[in-house]
């Protein structure tokens, strides 16, 4: 009988090409003392060379994304090993463990990336939120930040995608939650995974048509970053348009119904099918 760890392992593995966020760029619960005050800029005048550009932000988030993507893969494998040993972990506890391990790895990862790029964490945060206030002017920044936030969301279960300090302070509450039955969840999961896989395969075909070798590490990284955004967006839009389901409700349904045998079995089969189709398309696994 598939356990809760089987179910969440399938979801985690399915999310290895999704996006997620640095702790300070996803936390709704940050105190006002650490929130970025966009109007309280330092009086110090910086030269153009000292300023963090939008391209710098994109490059840094790309590096963090690739590094943390490997962490998510490792976490999903660990969850599967736990399940294979016969251990049962409650969903809430497992979510907490995944979040804690993700954030622990992120602290070490971002310290290294910041040092390599010679940037200060506070300066990067300030620059990022300033660019996020003008998404039409800096669409690449918005894309990489939300890609980060999405994977963090998939690990933590917290609704953080699109959050910024200004939006967070002005938020009055989200819409009504939609509760899914186990049968509706199975249908939604099938639609989500099939759309996700189809888009990823299509992108792989485009790379092959352009004579890009997915076995080349640099090409593979480019593919991962493109697929993580485009495929996930396509799958989320499909869920919304065809079943009127948002990701927060989808995740909540997974947590609620994870002990239902049919749910765990379906997610496991979808995961295997996804891996087989991606391997057939020449995507390194």
Q: Count the beta strands.
A: 0
Give me the secondary-structure category.
Answer: mainly alpha
Distance between the termini: 27 Å
The main pleated sheet reads as: none
Using only C-alpha atoms, the radius of gyration works out to: 19 Å
Helix content: 55-70%
Task: Give the overall form.
Answer: globular
SS strand fraction: under 5%
| Low-confidence region ranges | 1-48, 169-173
Structure description:
By secondary structure, the chain is mostly helical. It is 67% helix and 0% strand. It is built from ten helices and no strands. The chain is globular. Mean pLDDT is 77; it is low at 1-48 and 169-173.
Question: What secondary-structure arrangement, pairings included, does this model have?
Answer:
Layout: H1 4-14, H2 54-84, H3 91-116, H4 121-132, H5 139-156, H6 165-170, H7 182-209, H8 217-243, H9 247-257, H10 261-280
Brief account:
The chain is mainly alpha-helical. It contains 10 helices and no strands. The protein is globular.
Provide tags for this entry.
single chain, about 280 residues, mainly alpha, 10 helices, about 0% strand, disordered N terminus
